[in-house]
C-alpha cells in the first residue's frame, strides 16, 4: 500500500497529514528521517519506514479497513487484556477509535500522541475508568509507548501487548536471538518448555517467552538487515507466526502472508484478568517497544 499517494484530508503541518483508507482515518507522517502511518481505529501503527529501508512493519494485503474489524498486521494495541482470557480477544483498545491528542516535530523526527477514554461501549465490556495514551516517536528508530492510568475510584488489574508484526524477507531464513530459553507453548496447552539460544522456524509458533533479554534481534538475511526490538514495562515477549495452515484459515491474510513476517511482542502476560498487573487509583503503567534496524 503506497500511503504517500493518498490525498490529504487535513494538513496538520509540513510533516503530518490526515488521510483515509476506506473507512479508517490515518495519521500520515513524512519526515526526512522516516515515514510512518497510524490508524485512529485501534491506535494502530500500520507503517514505519526509516529512510532507505523496506518498511519494518508488516501489514496484510487483505486487511479490512472498515472501522470495525481489528486490523491485520502493524502494531495492534492489546489492552486491557492480552489473549482470549475475556471477550473480545485481546481487549477493546484495538477495535476502538482513538483521538489525535497532539503532534510535534523537529529535525530528529515526529511525535504523535493518541488518546482513548471510557465510553458506553468500553464500560459495557470492562466497567472501569481509565486514561490510555499512545505515544509514537518516529525518527531513526520507532518507539511506541502505551501509557495507562487508573482514573477509577477502585484498583483494577490488566494485561496487554504491543503485538508488533515485523517485515522479514523470508521467514525460513530468519534467525532470532535474545528471547531467552524458557517459554510457555500455547500450541501445547500452556506447557512450560526450554528452547535454544537461536530460533529458526520451520512451522507455526505461538510462545510466551518468560525471561527475554533487553534486546531481541531478528536477523533477516533475505533483506540484508537485522531488526532490534527493545521492550520495557513487560514481563514477557510473545513470538508468533501462524505458518501456512494458519494463514489459510484467516480471511484477512493472504495464504503466503506468513512467509514475510514475524511477530515479536512487548507483553504483560497473565493467564486471567484477575491475575494481571494491579493498578491502584491514579497509578500509571507504561508498556514500551522500540524498534530499529541495523
Count of separate DSSP helical elements: 2
CATH topological fold name: Beta-galactosidase, Chain A, domain 5
Largest sheet: spatial strand order: 7-8-9-10-24-20-19-14-17
Largest sheet descriptor? 9 strands, antiparallel
| SSE sequence, one letter per element | EEEEEEEEHEEEEEEEEEEEEEHEEE
Keywords: Isomerase
Family: Belongs to the glucose-6-phosphate 1-epimerase family.
Active site: 163, 265
Protein name: Putative glucose-6-phosphate 1-epimerase
What does this structure look like?
- By secondary structure, this protein is mainly beta.
- It has a single domain, classed as Beta-galactosidase, Chain A, domain 5 (Distorted Sandwich), CATH 2.70.98.
- It has two helices and 24 strands.
- The protein has a nine-stranded antiparallel beta sheet with strand order 7-8-9-10-24-20-19-14-17, with no helix packed on it. Strands 6, 12, 13, 15, 16, 18, 21 and 22 form an eight-stranded antiparallel beta sheet that branches. The chain has a five-stranded antiparallel beta sheet with strand order 1-2-3-4-5, with no helix packed on it.
- A hairpin with a 3-residue loop joins β9 and β10.
- It starts with 9 loop residues before the first strand and ends with a strand.
Amino acid at each position: 500500500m503506497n500511503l504517500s499517494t493518498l490525498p490529504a484530508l487535513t494538513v496538520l503541518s509540513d510533516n503530518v497529514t490526515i488521510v483515509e483508507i476506506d473507512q479508517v482515518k490515518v495519521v500520515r507522517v513524512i519526515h526526512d528521517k522516516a515515514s510512518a502511518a497510524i490508524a485512529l481505529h485501534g491506535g494502530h501503527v500500520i507503517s514505519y519506514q526509516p529512510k532507505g529501508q523496506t518498511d519494518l512493519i508488516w501489514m496484510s494485503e487483505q486487511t479490512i479497513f472498515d472501522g470495525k474489524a481489528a486490523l491485520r498486521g502493524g502494531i495492534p494495541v492489546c489492552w486491557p487484556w492480552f489473549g482470549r482470557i475475556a471477550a473480545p480477544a485481546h481487549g477493546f483498545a484495538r477495535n476502538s477509535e482513538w483521538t489525535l491528542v497532539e503532534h510535534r516535530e523537529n529535525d530528529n523526527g515526529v511525535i504523535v500522541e493518541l488518546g482513548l477514554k471510557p465510553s458506553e461501549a468500553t464500560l459495557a465490556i470492562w466497567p472501569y475508568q481509565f486514561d490510555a495514551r499512545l505515544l509514537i516517536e518516529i525518527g531513526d528508530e520507532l518507539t511506541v509507548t502505551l501509557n495507562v492510568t487508573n482514573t477509577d475510584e477502585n484498583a483494577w488489574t490488566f494485561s496487554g501487548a504491543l503485538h508488533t508484526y515485523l517485515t522479514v524477507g523470508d521467514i525460513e531464513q530468519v534467525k532470532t536471538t535474545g528471547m531467552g530459553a524458557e517459554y510457555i507453548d500455547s500450541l501445547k496447552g500452556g506447557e512450560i518448555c526450554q528452547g535454544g539460544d537461536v530460533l529458526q522456524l520451520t512451522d507455526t509458533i505461538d510462545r510466551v517467552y518468560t525471561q527475554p533479554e533487553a534486546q531481541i534481534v531478528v536477523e533477516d538475511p533475505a533483506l540484508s538487515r537485522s531488526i532490534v526490538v527493545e521492550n520495557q514495562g513487560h514481563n514477557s515477549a510473545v513470538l508468533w507466526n501462524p505458518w501456512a495452515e494458519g494463514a489459510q484459515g484467516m480471511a484477512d491474510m493472504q495464504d503466503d502472508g506468513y512467509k514475510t513476517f514475524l511477530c515479536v511482542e512487548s507483553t504483560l502476560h497473565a493467564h486471567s484478568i484477575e491475575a494481571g498487573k494491579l493498578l491502584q487509583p491514579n497509578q500509571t503503567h507504561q508498556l514500551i517497544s522500540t524498534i530499529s534496524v541495523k
